[in-house]
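Before the break, one more example. Copy the sequence into your notebook; we will annotate it together after we see the structure.
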Amino acid sequence: MSTAGAVGAVVDGVDALTADGGIVTIRPIRGSDQPGITALYGNASADNLRLRFFDQPSSGTLAAEVDRLCRPESDRRARDRRAQLRLR
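Here is what the structure looks like once it is written out:
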């Protein structure tokens, strides 16, 4: 997925300067990021997970969150629209 930049240019991410002077690229999440995000949550401390999820999440909750994050944006938007319609 790409985002539109200045003057109609299409970019896959933007560079940002970190507090220590390093440069990182910020880009939209991709389906191929799923193993890394799964590992990130798997290696996180219980306290970190509690602060992130406001509770101690189960493995099923973590798997559902990874799936949600890695779902293509068009699918996420359609699901969000359906949820909003149900709330009306």
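The longest strand covers residues 14-17. Residues 58 and 64 are 10 Å apart (CA to CA). Try to locate both features in your own notes.
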